[in-house]
Amino acid sequence: MEKFTLNFVADIFEQQLTEQQRNLSIHHIYTDSRQSVEGGLFIPIVGDRFDAHDFISGAIEQGAVAALWSRTEKPDDIPEDFPLIYVDDTLKALQELAKVYRQELNPTVIGVTGSNGKTTTKELIASCLSVKYKTAKTEGNLNNHIGLPLTILRMERDVEVLVAEMGMSAFGEIELLSLIGRPNHAVITNIGESHIEFLGSREGIAKAKLEITAGLQKQGQLIIDGDEPLLTSDSYPNKIYCGFNSKNDYRVEAYVQGQEQSDVTINGTTFTLPLLGKHQALNAAFAIAVSELMNVNINQAAEQLETVIIPGMRFEKIETKEGALLINDAYNASATSMIASLDVVKKMDYQRKVAVLADILELGDFAEEAHKKVGQSLDEQFDAIFTFGTSSRFILDGLPATFSGKQKHFTSKQELIEEIASLLDENTVVLFKGSRSMKLEEIIEAIY
Q1: Would residue 219 be called left, alpha or beta, if left means φ above 0 and alpha means ψ between -120 and 50 degrees?
Q2: Is 99 inside any structural domain?
Q3: What number of H helices and E strands is found in the chain?
Q4: Is 65 a domain residue?
Q5: Binding-site annotation, residues for ATP
Q6: Closest among 365, 354, 356, 299 to 333, alpha carbons compared
Q7: Same structural domain for residues 293 and 428?
Q8: Binding residues
Q9: Count of beta carbons in the 10 Å neighbourhood of residue 404
Q10: Residue 63 and residue 68: Cα distance in Å, rounded?
């Protein structure tokens, strides 16, 4: 489907094109020259180790009909009539193009950020709103200064709602994303320890997350974890509080964990959530709060939540040939999210419970403290704790003196695979949790 003609782009960047060029239909806006497209506008990003301008010929072969261009010269090996839109910086141009496209389509934008639970909350909100609106959402990990503009530019012209995930690792990044996306309403799921190496403290993390208000539209509502003082103390006036204590606007009044699902009661409405953990009940409360802001009633929202499907590697369950249950929760990790996942496994009905815990990264000087905090949360309900990497060994140092299960630190994936394999049977559950770059999925793949 056509997003716009090249005339739309030329006008933004004040370019002169032939009439034939201006009428070119643009269907896809993209940055990967290897991607096969129809009617593509190629935007070559310049990185620390690459310059995608070098791949313009490949982009044309794959379907590009035009490109943004920040070099002064036109390549000799492209067609003479191939239109280039000259800009000073292709990344900033991508962001500006997204801003203008978002303004032209004018959907309701829901921005979602937080230390943990961004993706799940985004999925829950999008599912709830889809009963009434044509809804687009962030796909994959397109939640940064490149991914958010691409997410906006992927919207079809008849989209009514965009649920946009916003991630960051440093100050100023969420502010930039908020000013690009201009959310009508925003959600901050929680304040954990992620990126504390760069932000200095949980107070710093809260400050960075609250940057989402920079582009929040006038009268926009900020939906927050009402049990987190670092969020409730902020001066932004239009807040909706979600949480477990009685003062919240959307209160999780009851939570009962089953083997495959949870029974949750929020503001008097009980429903079954196909997710495990009290943190997921809170994520559902965020979704219901947004839904009612958007005139989707709580019963409609609850019905959608009962059938929601979450992307892989987020408490993904896999059964081995021996009948053991592997839980792949290794998409990413912080101390807070790791403890939450361990708490879920504690309540599961298995005779043997094993935790495979890898490094939590980007903690800097807080690495030892954060990993020990995870260890302190463990108890005799686990039969074995295996750690992998470097800093994760501090988890074992934090174990209570009363812990009597097996504990061992590994630096070899193959040795860890052999150790886990020796324990697998129908009475065993194994949780895998660690930062994304630790690649625990490789261990899971080798086992099953």
Answers
A1: left
A2: no
A3: 17, 21
A4: yes
A5: 114-120
A6: 356
A7: no
A8: 114-120
A9: 11
A10: 15
